Amino acid sequence: MSAQGLRAGLIGLGSMGRHHARVLSGLEGVELVAVVDPMGDKHGAAQGAPVLSTVEELIDLGIDYAVVACPTALHEEVGLALAGAGVCALIEKPVADTVDGARRLVEAFESGGLVAGVGHIERFNPALQSLRVRLEAGELGEVFQVVTRRQGPFPHRIADVGVVKDLATHDIDLTAWVTGRDYTSIAARTVSKSGRPHEDMVAAVGQLADGTMVNHLVNWLSPLKERFTSVTGERGCFIADTLTADLTFHSNSAVATEWEALRAFRGVSEGDMIRYAIPKREPLQVEHENFRDAVLGVSSNISTLRQGLRTVEVAAAVLESAEHGRTVRLPGPVQGERDDQS
């Protein structure tokens, strides 16, 4: 670490990498030393930092950590190079494009005693952070179901993976994170309509370790952009819109009705709706601050590589289920794999 603070590098200047460059260049206590992209800086996003062609050149400059925002298929190769050089890393999600690749990254960074995290940015969405705190406090009582919908137009930046690894990994991670529970089974169907070799839509039904039912609907063939998460339990339903970072609570009413037929039909009664006032900081900024602090040993509020590995395992089970038309059971995490989810 230099006198000016941590020395950081960035690998990849694609659509997400450009946002990382913007945040890194203004991050307190961090100096953006250089950026790696063999295609150069076509969009002028490097914020004045030199643009290099290889990861080795970046390592030779002497850095404390790097943000890996290159295509998913390259995460393992780049991550292993950083770990081998003793460099900490924040790797964009998914951590790798295969379970074995993710496992090799976990082993490389852990064996080197290095801080490493996965860019599951939804964990830093204000609505989901507030939701998680409220669930931990027991405000919903017993949780019955988690439903997510994530859909929108096709992102032309994506060429190497389908909708499951690119988008559904957001929902898999946030579901396990907000509930604090692992997936135990998943059943899914996929559709390919864009002429690409990968799936464009997925519908999945799963179960968490405590019996909570999970439903995910993800596609990138819709003109409607939606980022919806609902958690239903014995006291009502939380709804998070992560596009606007709004969180609302719809409570079950205790108000009785004399209309017997209506009471029998409705099951539960519609109660008050509360919309919470939440400070809305940019999730990427908060993610970077947390990773910086983790490298400094101040905080550990990051998505660890082991948690990222578990998300890749569930995504692989989704694809396996869709391919073979059956429910896939997920083994429990090995000792230490489900570490602190803070």
UniProtKB/TrEMBL annotation:
Domain GFO/IDH/MocA-like oxidoreductase: 129-238
Organism: Streptacidiphilus cavernicola
Pfam family, one: GFO_IDH_MocA_C3
InterPro entries per the UniProt record, alphabetical: Gfo/Idh/MocA-like_OxRdtase_N, Gfo/Idh/MocA_Oxidoreductases, GFO_IDH_MocA-like_dom, NAD(P)-bd_dom_sf
Name of protein: Gfo/Idh/MocA family oxidoreductase
Gfo/Idh/MocA-like oxidoreductase N-terminal domain span: 7-120
